[in-house]
């Protein structure tokens, strides 16, 4: 299959039609290159807050509700595009206010047959906890698709090995991200590459890019698209299948062979995924040695 992952820049939107046209252009471009799976980044939906004006877009709490209120419309657009272009699409994540009160950070996976399901972020960053008060969402899911088994670790989630291990049956783990500084981008990238190593799978990282002075939440963004595998037989020795240019909006593409994933899991030079189970006994043996 061919995968496309986005370095996505936000726009100031004057109308809903402008938003639909933008998404249509992005999806048409990737589908035109033969991509069967498209991955958008974390908090890419925050541009929807601009439709309510600068006072709302620039206010943390009000922007959350403005975006959440438009997500049903946004989901309908994504669902239409997935069907029209016959692709799977991981939509940009958004704060979605739940009936219980506080919002979760949620992304949705759309199938070309009209199917849809969502994945919530599990572990919040300091900004999400201390400033936004975003809440952890529902459990991790494994999506069984015509392209293989797909999991999603939203940004910070990719930095936690046990979350990755919970998705060890996934052929692909998608990592939509939003990082302010270069250090943040590399934390998530290292996490994504580590999960590919441990699970002997492919990870697909999408990034929000560009500066948005109208927003307190997504004002500075650094990153690019990247597609990673285990540095082992059948994959590049660096583990990097493809990477974009830092902070340059656009798609990054890679062809992925599921048989290569199956082969490296069964007979790689190393068998990290299989040998994971040997860790608990070794950890339990840790003793304090005074020198």
Automatic annotation (TrEMBL):
Q: Which GO terms describe its molecular function?
A: hydrolase activity
> Could you confirm whether the keyword Hydrolase appears in this record?
yes
PROSITE patterns in the record: CN_HYDROLASE
Q: Which CDD domains match?
A: nitrilase_Rim1_like
User: Gene3D superfamilies this protein is in?
Assistant: Carbon-nitrogen hydrolase
CN hydrolase domain residues are 1-258
Enzyme class, top EC level, equals hydrolase
UniProt-listed Enzyme Commission number(s):
3.5.1.100
Report the superkingdom from the record. Bacteria
Q: Which SUPFAM superfamilies match?
A: Carbon-nitrogen hydrolase
Q: Enumerate the UniProt keywords alphabetically.
A: Hydrolase
Record-linked PANTHER family: HYDROLASE YHCX, NITRILASE-RELATED
Per its record, how is this protein called by name? (R)-stereoselective amidase
The gene name on file is ramA_3
């Amino acid at each position: 299959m061919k995968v496309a992952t986005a370095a996505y820049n936000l726009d100031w939107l004057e109308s809903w039609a402008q938003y639909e046209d933008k998404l249509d252009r992005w999806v048409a471009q990737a589908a035109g290159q033969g991509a069967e799976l498209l991955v958008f980044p974390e908090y890419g939906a925050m541009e929807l807050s601009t439709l309510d004006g600068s006072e709302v877009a620039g206010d943390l709490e009000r922007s959350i509700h403005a975006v959440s209120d438009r997500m049903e419309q946004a989901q309908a657009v994504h669902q239409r595009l997935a069907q029209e272009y016959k692709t799977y699409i991981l939509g940009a994540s958004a704060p979605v206010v739940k009936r219980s009160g506080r919002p979760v950070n949620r992304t949705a996976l759309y199938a070309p047959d009209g199917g849809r399901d969502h994945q919530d972020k599990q572990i919040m960053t300091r900004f999400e906890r201390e400033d936004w008060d975003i809440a952890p969402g529902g459990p991790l899911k494994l999506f069984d698709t015509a392209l293989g088994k797909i999991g999603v670790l939203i940004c910070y989630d990719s930095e936690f090995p046990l979350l990755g291990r919970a998705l060890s049956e996934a052929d692909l783990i998608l990592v939509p991200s939003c990082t302010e500084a270069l250090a943040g981008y590399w934390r998530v990238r290292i996490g994504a590459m580590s999960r590919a190593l441990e699970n002997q799978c492919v990870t697909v990282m999408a990034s929000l890019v560009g500066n948005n002075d109208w927003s307190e939440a997504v004002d500075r963004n650094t990153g690019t698209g990247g597609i990673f595998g285990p540095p082992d037989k059948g994959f590049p020795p660096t583990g990097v299948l493809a990477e974009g240019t830092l902070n340059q909006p656009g798609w990054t593409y890679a062809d992925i062979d599921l048989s290569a994933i199956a082969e490296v899991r069964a007979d790689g030079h190393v068998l990290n995924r299989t040998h994971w189970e040997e860790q608990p006994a070794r950890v339990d043996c840790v003793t304090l040695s005074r020198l």
